[in-house]
Structure formats: structure tokens, C-alpha cells
Amino acid sequence: KAQIRNLDFAIQKQLIKSEYLNTLEQKQGAEDWVKRLKQQTNPLVAHEVLTNLIPALKVSKADFFETFVNSGGLDVLITISQFDNNKDKLRQSLLEIIKALLDAPNDVGFHVVAKHSHLIQDIVNIFDNLDIRTKMCCVQILCILCWWKQDTYSQVCAALEKFASTLHYDTWWPILLDT
Q: What are the recorded Gene Ontology BP terms (predicted)?
């Protein structure tokens, strides 16, 4: 900050303006991503868009995540992951996006996921996938969520219980043991 204060006033003004434009660009970028995702009807193209979104999320700031979520981005991701064609690849991309969210600075991604318990349920529902790598990715994400806070631990347990009841199990332990 001291170095910035020592700069010429015009340069300080340019730095502030560029930071403002960068923030504005990120907000527009998140909304544009949500619009692109909402337009997807072809599972193959949707997978390509999801694959392109992952690196964008990995370099984004907290504002991007908040704008993305507030624009309905998570709900669109869940909808896309339910397409019948190319379902395994779409689900794997969804899990990679969730990992990118959880890697966001200042626990922004954890807060986002915790606010959307239906997202946690969708992660658990991916256990019906036959691919062991996909199941292991689910387990990793769920373990991280359980570790983060008591609230997300409770949400994960509730989602596992609901999933177990659909398989007519009394408890959710066999689901994890099968993985």
C-alpha cells in the first residue's frame, strides 16, 4: 500500500480503474457462463462447456463464485448433469467443478455448497454410477465436506440416509463399503 501511495495520482487512478474493470469483467464473466450453460441442450456440447468452465473456476476470485451462484449456476449444473446421454462424463465434470469450488479462496466454495443442500444430495446420488473413479471422487468430496463443519457433516449424513432409503437399506454404510 505504501508503494501505491508513493505513485503519481494519475497512476493511482489508473490502478483503481483497472481493478474496478477487472471486478466488473469477472461479474459479467460469471453471468455469461451461466447463460452459456442454460443454452445447452446437447450433452456433448454441454460436456465441452463444463470442461472449459473448470479452468475458469480455478483462477477466479470470490466475486466470480458469488455471482455464478446468485445467477443460478449451480442449479443449471445439476440440471445438465442429469442428461441421459453422456451422463457419466457430465457427472465427472460436475464433480470436477465442485472440486474447483471447494478450492476457492477463503472457503467461498464451502459456503456455496453448504447453502445448497440439494447439491450435496446430487453428489450422493452419483453413487449409482458404475465407474469406481467417479464413486471415489464422490467419497473424497463428501469427506472434505464432512471435515469442514458440523453443518455440512449433517447434510452429508442426511443425503446418504435418503439415498440409502431409495435402495431399501437401513443404513448408508453399505453404500460406502461397496465403493
A: actin cytoskeleton organization
Give the pLDDT confidence score for residue 5 in this predicted structure: 62
Q: 61-108, pLDDT tens digit by residue?
A: 778 888 888 899 889 988 888 887 778 888 888 899 999 888 888 888
- Per-residue H/E/C for the chain: CHHHHCCCHHHHHHHHHHHHHHHHHHHHHHHHHHHHHHCCCCHHHHHHHHHHHHHHHHCCCHHHHHHHHHCCHHHHHHHHHCCCCCHHHHHHHHHHHHHHHHCCHHHHHHHHHHHCHHHHHHHHHHHHCCCHHHHHHHHHHHHHHHHHCHHHHHHHHHHHHHHHHHCCCCCCHHHHHHC
Statement to judge: residues 14 and 80 lie in one domain: yes
Q: Global pTM?
A: 0.73
Residue with cell 490502478: 15
Asked if residues 63 and 71 have their Cβ atoms less than 8 Å apart, the reply is no
Nearest in space to 114 (alpha carbons), one of 150, 81, 82, 79:
150
Tell me, what amino acid is at 52?
A: N
Q: What percent of the chain has pLDDT over 90?
A: 5
Q: How many angstroms separate the CA atoms of 38 and 157, rounded?
A: 31
Residues 91 and 21 in one domain: yes
Whether residue 85 sits in one domain with residue 126: no
